[in-house]
Amino acid sequence: MGAFTRLEAKFGKAAIPGLLRWVALLQGVMFIITMMRGAEVIDFLALDPPRILQGQVWRILSFVCVPPTTNFIFIIFAVFFLWFVSDGLERAWRPFGVNLYFFATVFCLVLASFIRYFIQGTPPGSQDIAPEFVVIASLVMAFACLYPEVEILLFGIIPLKMKWIGYLDAGFLGLMLLSGAWIEVPLALIPFFVAFVPSFFRSASQRAQTASRKAGYERRQLSKTDAFHRCSRCGATDQEEPDLEFRVTQDGEDLCLRCIEVGKAPP
User: Fold this and answer.
1) Which of 252, 200, 198, 210 is nearest to 2 (CA)?
2) Mean pLDDT of all residues belonging to the chain
3) Which one of 71, 94, 103, 118 counts the least CB within 10 Å of its CB?
C-alpha cells in the first residue's frame, strides 16, 4: 500500500467533495462584491504575512478566492473553466487527492510568502506577484498533465488542447519567476513536481524499455530471413534455394555446389 493510499484510508472522509467548484464559485461571488464595494474587498482577502501575524488568519486561505480578472465576460469563463478542471482532477485523483494537492500548494505558497517577508520584509503584493494565479496555474498544469489531448474552446471560440494551456501557464509562471517570484513559484510547484516528476521518469523508462523490446524483436525477425550460406560467386543463398548444397573452401570462401561443379572455382 502506497503512502497516498494510506493517507486516503486514514483521512479520506475529511476531504471536501468538489472543493475546486467551491473555489470557483467564491471567485465569482467575490467578483460581484468587488464590483459593488470596490478594491478594498481584494485587500481584505489578500495574502499578507504581517496582517496574518496580527491575527487576520483567514488570509491563509482567502487569497485563493480573489477573482482572477476584473472583466465580467472573462470571469464567467474563468469560473466555468476551474469547474471543468475540478471535475477532471477528481475523476483522476478522487476528492482526497484534489484536496491534498490543493492544500499542499496553498501551504507551500503561504510558506514562501512568509520566507519572503522575513528575508525582505515585504509581502508578495509588493513584488507584483499574484499568489492566487500561482495556485490556479498549478491546478491547470496538473490537469494538462493528466489530460493533455483534451480539447476545449478557449473563451468559447478557440479550440485548444489542454497541453498547450498547460505550457502557457508554465510560461506565465516562468515570467513571474524572472520578475521576482524566485521564492513563491519554486515552492508552490513542489506538489506538482512530487505528483508528476516520478511518473514522468517512469513513463520515460517504460518508453525506453518498449523501444528496446521492439528493436530486439525486429532484429530477431530480421535474423530469420538472413541466409546462413551465401555463395560468394553467384550470390545464391540457402534461404532462396534450400536444396542447394554449399561448401566452405580452405580460404574461408562460401561457395555453392553448382559453382564448384561447373568449374568456376576449385573445390
Assistant:
1) 198
2) 85
3) 118
SS3 64: helix
The amino acid present at 9, given as its one-letter code, is A
Closest CA to 107 of 51, 56, 166, 47: 47
Quick check: helix, strand or coil at residue 247?
A: strand
C-alpha to C-alpha distance for 168 and 161, rounded to whole angstroms? 11
The answer to whether the CB of 217 falls within 8 A of the CB of 205 is no
Q: Which three cell numbers stand for residue 267?
A: 573445390
Q: Which three cell numbers stand for residue 12?
A: 479520506
Residue 205 φ/ψ, nearest 5 degrees: -65, -40
Distance, in Å, from the CA atom of 36 to the CA atom of 193, rounded to the nearest integer, reads: 39
Return d(Cα 17, Cα 32) in angstroms, integer: 25
For the chain, the residue count is 267
The enclosing H or E element of 246 equals strand 246-248
**Rounded distance, CA 201 to CA 165, Å?**
22
Map grid coordinates 517512469 to a residue. 202
Q: Please give the full DSSP string across 145-165, using - where no structure is assigned.
A: HHSTT-EEEETTTEEEEHHHH
The residue whose grid cell reads 530469420 is: 224
Residue 263, pLDDT above cutoff 50: yes
Tens digits of residue pLDDT in 86-143: 999 999 999 999 999 999 999 999 999 999 899 887 654 444 568 889 999 999 999 9
CA distance 21 to 89: 11
CA 30 to chain centre: 30
Distance, CA of 215 to CA of 32 (rounded, Å): 60
CA distance 21 to 128: 27
pLDDT of residue 126: 44
